[in-house]
Amino acid sequence: METIQVVIDKKLLQATDSAALRTKRNRSALVRDALREHLRRLTVQSLEERDRAGYAERSPAHDESARWESEAAWPKE
User: What is the pLDDT of residues 34-57, one digit of tens each?
Assistant: First the structure.
């Protein structure tokens, strides 16, 4: 592990310490977990944007979903 310095305002530091206490973790563990989660969300967001752009470039064929209609139908009782 590496030791770094991060500058944050007093209010954010107090909120961080409060959250660390509530979750029974130390400040460093809380910040590491929060950063991991933020980076994971950025990755997911980037992949979603890539997929959205890909689908926007390609118009679906008119009957493309027709073959799946029977899969989406409720079974007869």
Answer: 999 999 999 999 999 999 998 888
Domain region containing 40: 27-56
What distance in Å separates the CA atoms of residue 55 and residue 12, rounded to the nearest whole number?
Answer: 40
Cβ atoms of 30 and 23 within 8 Å: the answer is yes
**Inside any domain, residue 49:** yes
Q: 19: which residues sit within 8 A by CB, 6+ positions away? A: 30
Rg of the chain (C-alpha set): 23
SS3 25: coil
In a domain, 46, yes or no: yes
Tell me how many domains the chain contains.
Answer: 1
How far apart are the C-alpha atoms of 5 and 44, rounded to whole Å?
Answer: 27
pTM over 0.70: no
How many CB atoms sit inside 10 A of residue 20's CB?
17
